[in-house]
Amino acid sequence: MELFDLGGRVAIVTGGNGGIGLAMARGMARAGARLVIAGRNEEKNARAAEEMATTGVELMTHVIDVTDEADCYEMVSATLSRFGRLDILVNNAGMSIRKPPEDLALAEWRQVLDTNLTAAFVCAQAAYEPMRDAGGGKIINIGSMMSLFGAPFAAPYASSKGGIVQMTKALATAWAKDNIQVNAVLPGWIDTELTVNARREVATLNQRVLDRTPAGRWGLPEDHEGVAVFLASRASDFVTGATIAVDGGYSANI
Ligand code: NDP
Q1: Is 20 in the pocket of ligand 1 (CB under 6 A)?
Q2: How far apart are alpha carbons 131 and 106 in whole angstroms?
Q3: How many structural domains does the chain have?
Q4: Which residue's C-alpha comes closest to atom 10 of ligand 1?
Q5: Which of 22, 37, 40, 42, when mutated, tests ligand 1's pocket best, judged by the most ligand atoms within 8 Å of its CB?
Q6: Is residue 5 part of a domain?
Q7: Gap from CA of 220 to ligand 1 centroid (Å)
Q8: What pLDDT does residue 171 have?
């Protein structure tokens, strides 16, 4: 089997209907994986499936709210019913509520933590048994530069993304015995729906990102295609508990 070949493999991507998730799905599809695109918005799911049709990939969409535990388990069982296996889980669904910490309601804090961190844990739990029983699997969690740094508008987001890194390490140590590799990708500043709003709400953000990023540009969703294929494939079988920044050098810079 080729090092980066995903032929015969089945991947779930939460929040796979747009942005970084869709790009990761596209990369894995190109490498031969069959896909489950899972997101809340049915229309966006359908549009993503249409766009992916050009790759010739075998794909299903699934409507899910990742903050609902039952939905996460249902997503895994729907995948097993359709494809008979689950090899790769990308915990990508995420959101932010940008406010100074003193203005945040507890419900807002919980919404961000539930979506970005707790849901990733629940989906990983739901994926564990089928992966273990099949002899292995790959879990890819999506962190952020906020896994490493803080920002005045990002207390719950940074807490959730810092948590993603530590959860990744804990799951990696627990499930190495089952041949399940668990890694995290930390995207830099990427031009998506999520950051369009951030740029609007935080006046100086655009220039600050350009000034600090050695590559001299914002990232694009497609910058994540390769890292998804690497972490989903045999090429990364001895890589677990790692965090890989895809940030044009942002986190290496002073
Ligand atoms: P988008 O807003 O384009 O994508 C977010 C995705 O998450 C959407 O597909 C959305 O689906 C899904 N989602 C959100 N909440 C839920 C939920 N409760 N249940 C199911 N799906 C949900 O943003 P990005 O592509 O930028 O973000 C993807 C990931 O990358 C996130 O985890 C984000 O934190 C992370 N990231 C992004 C960076 C950036 O600069 N853009 C930088 C660092 C990390 P739907 O619309 O159907 O609800």
Answers
A1: yes
A2: 35
A3: 1
A4: 15
A5: 40
A6: no
A7: 14
A8: 99
Q: How many CB atoms lie within 10 A of CB 203?
A: 9
The tokens of 116 are what?
Answer: 């970005």
User: Which of 73, 128, 157, 250 is the catalytic position?
Assistant: 157
Give the pair of three-digit tokens for residue 146. Answer: 């906020």
Q: What is the CATH number of the domain that holds 156?
A: 3.40.50.720
Give the closest residue to 60 by CA, choosing from 83, 43, 77.
Answer: 83
Whether 151 is covered by a domain: the verdict is: yes
Range of the domain at 77: 10-247
- pLDDT tens per residue, range 52-85: 998 899 999 999 999 999 999 999 999 999 999 9
157 is catalytic: yes
**Is residue 235 domain-resident?**
yes
pTM here is 0.98
254 within domain boundaries = no
| Cα 239 to ligand 1 centroid, rounded to whole Å | 25
